[in-house]
Amino acid sequence: MKSAERSQRELSLTAAHVARVHRDVVDQGQPPGLQPQTDADYEDWVSRVLASHPSPREPTQLFAYGSLIWRPEIEHLGERGGVLRGWHRSFCLRQWRFRGSPEYPGLMMSLDRGGSCQGVLFQLPDEDLETQFHKLFRREFTIKPNTNVPCWLAVQTDQGSVPALVFVMNRESPQYAGDLTPNEIADVLAKSCGHLGTGAEYLLNTVTQLEARGMHDQGLWRLQELVAERIGPV
Questions:
Q1: What span, in angstroms and rounded, lies between the C-alpha atoms of 50 and 215?
Q2: pTM exceeds 0.90, yes or no
Q3: Inter-residue contact 207 to 13 (CB < 8 Å)
């Protein structure tokens, strides 16, 4: 790659920007008025998703598009790139916990309808899928109604289409933020912080991991520039 091309791909958002907006935030738990998922709820979701597995005799694939790429927290046997059509990354999930708080509300990514999305397919071990799914589901949704809904969707790979477990946005959730502009999203990410860290770090980690795999998301790239601008020189 030529030096001019390298400079064009230099991230504007850096660890120094993240450090500038980081605050130590105590986890206050779920905000009032939100109903948590119960053990019985998770049991039901796991049972339903396992029962609807489209290819139970084939290796189970999990499609990762955001923090699952850099913090999967589950065992996997390998990874490869894939494209999910009909869905796109969107900062459409409002958060008052995790990477946001009541004082510094945040936005996190989910998959919203329309467009397409490059991501990573993780192959899950064949044994004990039930335990893996329990761990995943407790990571991906904590309140009722679900913010992220697990479902089986077709993902395109170099070897053809494969079914994969995908978490998509529930537009009926009270945390659904809708279609925000890049400027509106950047305003939030430049300030938001929760007990897991900042929105700026969440964005930086995702862009960095995608770029390392040769996946250039033009929307996220522009967003990291806007967030760096709002945080200011470091």
A1: 30
A2: yes
A3: yes
Averaged pLDDT for residues 53-68: 94
- 19/26 Cα distance (integer angstroms): 17
| Residue positions counted in the chain | 234
The reply to whether 5 belongs to the active site is: no
**Which of these, 84, 61, 99, lies nearest to 215 by C-alpha position?**
84
pLDDT at 54 over 70: yes
Residue 142 pLDDT > 60, yes or no?
Answer: yes
Q: At 30, phi and psi to the nearest 5?
A: -65, 140
Q: What is the pLDDT of residue 8?
A: 54
Q: Which of 79, 140, 211, 229 is catalytic?
A: 140
Sign of CA dihedral 173, 188, 186, 205: negative
Find all residues with CB under 8 Å of 117, minimum gap 6, and list them.
65, 83, 84, 87, 88, 89, 111
Secondary structure in 3-state letters for the chain: CCHHHHHHCCCCCCHHHHHHHCCCCCCCCCCCCCEECCHHHHHHHHHHHHHCCCCCCCCEEEEECCHHHHCCCCCCCEEEEEEEEEEEEEEEEEECCCCCCCCCCEEEEEEEEEEEEEEEEEEECCCCHHHHHHHHHHHHCCEECCCEEEEEEEEEECCEEEEEEEEEECCCCCCECCCCCHHHHHHHHCCCEECCEEHHHHHHHHHHHHHHCCCCCHHHHHHHHHHHHHHCCC
Between the alpha carbon of residue 168 and those of residues 7, 65, 156, the distances in Å are 34, 10, 17
CA pair distance 228, 234, nearest whole angstrom: 9
